[in-house]
């Protein structure tokens, strides 16, 4: 409280100095603009009028300083009175507390005396004597406390005499002595008188303290109110400039904030564009679907930091959706049918957010996450799969939604790349595969044979060529029809697919004739392979149209590089001659090319 006038005085002096200096600057500028100011009465009056607000401000500042000093003195005086009143209240409360303690000690003396008379326990007598000693001490303390209240002198003397009487009684107290009821009652009565007196005094002092407090509050309120009025007058002229400056600063801040947001948005767009460009370039370099999925998952993890997700593609059966690439910890695995995903059912990007959509997809390992995105991947009007993005918190959701356009563009790039590779694989299969059996066609066989011959020549390895013909296949076709014949050819082709090594080449040469190229093999190894194929065909059963067909056999002719020839056409012709020999010898057997047989 005492420091407040000093602080306000310092502020007023500072304001006075600021206004005074500002006025001088204004006067100097006016004088600089008009050198003949001293010669113009009108301008002299204008200059004098411009100084009057400053003089008023100085006068107001002096008045404010004087008022502050007077108000500070009044506040200090009322505060001193309030503190004194509070101290008297606390003093009275301390007296009441001591009286309460004396009453409790009196009751304890009576209680311990009765216990001693009933039980004869010396410990109870000792405790009663201790309580009497404490009562004497409390009476002495009360004598000091109520020294300011002359009305309590007689009561204090009575209490001290009563305490002394009890002390004398308990010094010679025996088990057959009578309880000191009269002395105890006298003590309690005296304590009651003193308590009533102090309670009345406490009420009076509380009222006085409240009046002092009220007066202090009124004084401070009046001081604050007048101070506010004075401050409003002093700062009225400055507030206009301050408000204008604040508006200008606020507009500048808003402009800077918008500029920063635009710059951040441009930076995000540039970063997103660079990520999309890099992803597109990497996807264009991919030569198979596995690389496309791997590059796409990496690009999505960079585009959507903080989120987890996976690419799920519909397989060839159109019944199962397989997870082909993922990043982060996602709760999705291969699922069936595709309709388990709401995004695939709707055909458009779908957010699952609390309050926005309460229907969950059913393709999760355990429980569905709270927030996720399912965006279909499509190309050329065909749905290929979905992009699943799992969001853990609101910040990740906002980030994914902010980059929704980039995600859509990347999904389109992925869809086009997958569709292109699928079409490329389909066209490639159509160009090198036989559509009925799925084996390589004759054109691919010729290219592969030339490549394998060149490799065998470089590595000085042996290569076997097998010409295979299904025995009596025309008779089977005439008897059971072409559809049954196609089913039989497909079953025999499946044996060739599974019965050869990964590096072996199985082709359909034409009609019911097949060609097998076995690189890097011996004559014994090639013969064992041919024998296993012949045995498998001999045991073959073909179910078709509620019937089962069997008793299929094949004839095989074999020629080897380099012993039987070093050119493709020569090896095929020699293998065909060996096949002709197998047919002449009764079919369902294997023949090797021999020169003498060829001459015959």
SSE layout:
Layout: H1 3-33, H2 41-119, H3 122-145, H4 153-171, H5 181-285, H6 289-303, E1 308-314, E2 321-327, H7 342-346, E3 350-352, E4 371-379, E5 382-391, H8 394-402, H9 404-432, H10 442-459, E6 463-470, H11 473-480, H12 482-498, E7 505-510, E8 513-519, H13 523-538, E9 542-544, E10 547-549, E11 554-561, H14 568-584, E12 590-592, H15 595-599
Parallel strand pairs: 11-12
Antiparallel strand pairs: 1-2, 1-5, 3-4, 4-5, 6-8, 6-11, 7-8, 9-10
The chain-level mean pLDDT equals: 82
- Class per helix and strand makeup: alpha+beta
Number of strands: 12
Give the oligomer, counting copies of the same chain as homo and different chains as hetero. Answer: single chain
Instruction: State the CATH architecture of the largest domain.
Output: 2-Layer Sandwich
Strand percentage: 5-15%
Report the C-alpha radius of gyration, rounded: 56 Å
Helical content class: 55-70%
- What summary fits the major beta sheet? 5 strands, antiparallel
Low-confidence stretches: 1-51
Q: Encode the helix/strand succession as letters.
A: HHHHHHEEHEEEHHHEHHEEHEEEHEH
What brief labels describe this structure?
alpha+beta; 600 residues; 15 helices; 4 domains; disordered N terminus
Structure overview:
- By secondary structure, this protein is an alpha+beta fold.
- It has 4 domains: 3-85; 96-219; 307-420, Beta-Lactamase; 433-599, 2-Layer Sandwich (Alpha-Beta Plaits), CATH 3.30.70.270.
- It is 66% helix and 12% strand.
- It is built from 15 helices and 12 strands.
- It has helices at residues 3-33, 41-119, 122-145, 153-171, 181-285, 289-303, 342-346, 394-402, 404-432, 442-459, 473-480, 482-498, 523-538, 568-584, 595-599; strands at 308-314, 321-327, 350-352, 371-379, 382-391, 463-470, 505-510, 513-519, 542-544, 547-549, 554-561, 590-592.
- The strands form 3 sheets. It has a 5-stranded antiparallel sheet with strand order 2-1-5-4-3.
- A hairpin with a 2-residue loop joins strand 7 (505-510) and strand 8 (513-519).
- Helix 1 runs antiparallel to helix 2.
- The longest helix is centred in the middle third of the chain and has 105 residues, at 181-285.
- The N and C termini lie far apart (135 Å).
């Amino acid at each position: 409280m005492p420091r407040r006038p000093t602080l306000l005085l310092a502020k007023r002096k500072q304001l006075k100095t600021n206004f005074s200096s500002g006025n001088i600057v204004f006067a100097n500028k006016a004088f600089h603009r008009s050198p003949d100011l001293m010669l113009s009465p009108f301008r002299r009056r204008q200059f004098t009028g411009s100084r009057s607000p400053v003089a008023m401000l100085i006068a107001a500042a002096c008045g404010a300083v004087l008022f502050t000093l007077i108000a500070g003195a009044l506040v200090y005086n009322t505060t001193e009175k309030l503190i004194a009143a509070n101290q008297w209240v606390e003093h009275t409360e301390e007296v009441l507390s001591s009286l309460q303690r004396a009453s409790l000690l009196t009751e304890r003396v009576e209680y311990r005396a009765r216990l001693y008379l009933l039980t004869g326990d010396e410990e109870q007598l000792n405790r009663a004597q201790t309580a009497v000693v404490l009562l004497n001490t409390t009476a002495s303390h009360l004598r000091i406390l109520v020294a300011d209240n002359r009305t309590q002198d007689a009561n204090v003397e009575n209490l001290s005499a009563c305490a002394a009487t009890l002390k004398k009684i308990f010094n010679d107290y025996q088990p057959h002595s009578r309880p000191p009821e009269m002395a105890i009652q006298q003590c309690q009565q005296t304590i009651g008188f003193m308590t009533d007196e102090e309670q009345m005094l406490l009420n009076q002092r509380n009222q006085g303290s409240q009046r002092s407090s009220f007066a202090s509050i009124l004084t401070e309120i009046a001081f604050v109110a007048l101070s506010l009025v004075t401050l409003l007058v002093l700062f009225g002229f400055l507030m206009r400039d301050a408000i204008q400056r604040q508006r200008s600063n606020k507009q500048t801040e808003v402009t800077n904030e918008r500029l920063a947001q635009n710059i951040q948005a441009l930076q995000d767009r540039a970063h997103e564009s660079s990520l999309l460009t890099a992803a597109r370039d990497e996807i264009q370099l991919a030569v198979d679907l596995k690389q496309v999925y791997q590059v796409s998952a990496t690009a999505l993890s960079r585009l959507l930091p903080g989120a987890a997700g996976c690419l799920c593609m519909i397989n060839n059966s159109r019944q199962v959706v397989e997870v082909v690439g993922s990043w982060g910890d996602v709760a999705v695995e291969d699922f069936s049918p595709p309709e388990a995903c709401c995004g695939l059912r709707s055909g458009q990007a779908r957010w699952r957010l609390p309050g926005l959509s309460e229907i969950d997809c059913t393709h999760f390992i355990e429980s569905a996450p709270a927030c996720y995105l399912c965006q279909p991947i499509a190309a050329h009007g065909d749905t290929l799969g979905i992009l699943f993005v799992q969001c853990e918190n609101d910040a990740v959701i906002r980030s994914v939604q902010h980059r929704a356009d980039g995600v859509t563009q990347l999904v389109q790039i992925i869809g086009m790349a997958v569709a292109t590779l699928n079409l490329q694989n389909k066209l490639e299969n159509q160009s090198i595969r036989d559509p009925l059996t799925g084996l390589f066609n004759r054109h691919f066989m010729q290219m592969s044979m030339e490549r394998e011959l060149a490799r065998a020549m470089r590595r000085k390895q042996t290569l076997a060529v097998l010409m295979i013909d299904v025995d009596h296949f025309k008779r089977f076709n005439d008897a059971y029809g072409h559809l049954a014949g196609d089913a039989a050819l497909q079953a025999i082709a499946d044996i060739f697919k599974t019965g050869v090594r990964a590096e072996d080449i199985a082709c359909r040469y034409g009609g019911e004739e097949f060609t097998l190229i076995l690189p890097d093999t011996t004559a014994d190894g090639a013969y064992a392979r041919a024998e296993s194929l012949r045995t498998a065909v001999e045991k073959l059963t073909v179910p078709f149209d509620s019937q089962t067909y069997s008793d299929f056999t094949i004839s095989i002719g074999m020629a080897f590089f380099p012993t039987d020839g070093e050119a493709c056409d020569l090896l095929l012709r020699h293998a065909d001659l060996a096949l002709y020999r197998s047919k002449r010898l009764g079919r369902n057997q294997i023949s090797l090319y021999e020169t003498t047989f060829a001459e015959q």
